[in-house]
Design goal:
By secondary structure, the protein is α+β, with helices and mostly antiparallel strands. The chain has helices spanning about 20-25, 50-55, 85-90, and strands spanning about 5-10, 30-35, 35-40, 60-65, 70-80, 95-100, 105-110.
C-alpha cells in the first residue's frame, strides 16, 4: 500500500490575492488553488511548503491527514475572539497548543492514531464550502 498524505488550507476572512495564489502555485503544479483554498494530496512525494507559516500568512484553517494515522488541524483566529491565556488552559500535553502571531491566535491540534477508517478523495475541511470569502468572519 502506498503512503497517502492530504493537505487542505482554507481562507475564511479574506480571499487570496492573485500574487498570493502565484506564490502558492510555485510550491505545487498539481494542487487545486482558488482564492479561498489550497488542496493537494501526495502518494509518492511530499509537501514543499511550511504549513505553520502558511497559516500565519495566508490561511485561517489547515487540515493534514496521513494514512498512517497522523491528523493535524490548525485554526487562525483574531486575538479579540480568544485570548492566549484562556486558550492555553485547554491545551494539555502535546495534542493541543496555542500561540500568538501578530493579530492572531493560532490553535494547533495533533493526533497520532494508528489504524481507523480511511477515505481517500473527499473534501475534509470545507468549513464554508462554495461561499464568498469574507462572508463568515470570526466575530
Amino acid at each position: 500500500m502506498s503512503e497517502y498524505q492530504y493537505y487542505e488550507f482554507q481562507a475564511i476572512d479574506r480571499p487570496l490575492t492573485e500574487r498570493e495564489m502565484r506564490e502558492l502555485r510555485s510550491y505545487s503544479t498539481r494542487a487545486t488553488i482558488t482564492a479561498t483554498r489550497f488542496v493537494n494530496h501526495y502518494e509518492w512525494g511530499s509537501f514543499k511548503g511550511n504549513s505553520a507559516a502558511w497559516v500565519e500568512k495566508y490561511f485561517d484553517a489547515f487540515l493534514y491527514v496521513a494514512n498512517w494515522g497522523t491528523h493535524e488541524l490548525s485554526l487562525r483566529l483574531p486575538r479579540q475572539v480568544l485570548d492566549l491565556k484562556t486558550a492555553k488552559q485547554y491545551c494539555c500535553g502535546e495534542a493541543a497548543s496555542a500561540r500568538i502571531k501578530g493579530d492572531f491566535i493560532i490553535l494547533e491540534f495533533l493526533s497520532e492514531e494508528e489504524g481507523g477508517e480511511w477515505e481517500e478523495g473527499r473534501k475534509r475541511l470545507a468549513l464554508f464550502p462554495d461561499s464568498a470569502p469574507g462572508r463568515h468572519r470570526w466575530r
